[in-house]
Amino acid sequence: MQMKILQVNYSDIVGGAALAVNNLHNYLIKNEIDSKMLVVDKNINDKNIIGPKNKLEKFSFNFRSRLIKYLVRKIYYSPIKNSYSLNYFNTNILKQINSSSVDLVHLHWIGNEMISISQLKKINKPIIWTFWDMWPLNGAEHYSYDNRCLEGYNKNNRPQKEKGLDLNRLIWEHKLKKFNLKFNVICPSSWLYNIAKKSIIFNKSEIKYIPISVDTSYWVNQNNIESKKKLGISLDKKILLFSSTSGTNDRKGFNFLVDAINNSKIENLFLIVIGEKPKRLEELKIEFKYFGKIEDRSKQRTLYSATDLILMPSIREVFGLVSLEGASCSVPSVIFDDTGCSDLITHKFNGYIAEKKNSLEYQRGIDWCISDEKRLDKLKSNAREKAKDFDNDINFKKLINYYKSIIKNKY
To answer: What is the per-residue pLDDT for 247?
Structure first.
């Protein structure tokens, strides 16, 4: 009997989580598993992706999301740029889930008011929940930079620079009350897995580490020189790439990148920037080109192929899809330690791991990778080999077996 799986994610292709879920969804279909995606933000014309039924329903979700963001700005302040989801008010997503004839519901990134916290325990199907950021463990914030999610949110450990209502404490306490059941949780990195295992909210849950996956048959280098020509980039430059869809200067560490590049001893550097435009971009002392948001996978692959080194100086990163896709295209990365990217990079084998928040050490990492041509070629070759450890066929087969075990235990 064919398994029927419902993937629940806010978007079908926008954002790293959406791309990872879409990759899983397509893999399941190719392997004759009935997979559907239930989303709020639908961009692909695909019968297997279920979006809002009409314009009114789409408007309702957008209005709710914008209203909550407005309210958060009015009642709460933090100097750290972050994304917040309350997920306090009920939506019709629960009805859609419960009326579906599926064997298992796989929850993914459900922030932005997609479904309420209290509705999750009312889902009448077996559930797996993959954490694509820290929101399930936190309060309202999608990423935390302290230990409140492990210690418990209280008055004594609230950051001093926060003002207004302690919104994160209220939502965390709401989760603690409503999530009082066993979830089947998947973490896509060992870094997040180690945090989730200590969570008070999920102390009854089964938590597994199944790494993020990549389609190594698609993400293949198309020739570095030809790709540079196609993009109109000088052939005598060493190309660096930085990509971010949100939190560019704070969470994604662009501030550290600027300081590192400006202190680099390498002269022929060129930076490609994708996604959200960084605030300090104009401060760079090297040539750069801003490409904006790229949703065309073919163009993304060409950009990777033109790149010599990916820069991912994130201080909080759950899985690092850009680094993994780039590695599959034979591009090494420079990262900070103690993030989800640490699973993807072996120091001085397929990239460089610098001490977190240390711009000088990050600059040394860039220079070490780029300064020696033979070394760089070896790093590129190793990057591709390391990426094969995260191939779809390896990790998705683990997930499919997990699906089967949960469905079997239901009956």
So the answer is: 63
What domains can you pick out in the chain, each with its CATH number?
4-213+392-410 (3.40.50.2000), 224-390 (3.40.50.2000)
Q: What residues form DSSP beta bridges with 244?
A: 275
Q: How many CB atoms lie within 10 A of CB 257?
A: 27
Average pLDDT, the chain: 95
**Measured between alpha carbons, how far is 189 from 323 in angstroms, rounded to an integer?**
13
User: What b/e string do you get for 123-154 counting C-beta neighbours within 10 Å, with b at 16 or more?
Assistant: bebbbbbbbbbbbbbbbbbbbbeeebbeeebe
The separation between CA 335 and the C-alpha centre of its own chain, rounded to angstroms, equals: 15
> Residue ranges of the alpha helices (H) in 36-160?
55-75, 93-98, 148-151
Contact yes or no for 9/108 (Cβ under 8 A): yes
How far does Cα 192 stand from its chain's mean position?
12
* One-letter identity of residue 151: E
Which pLDDT value is given to residue 139? 97
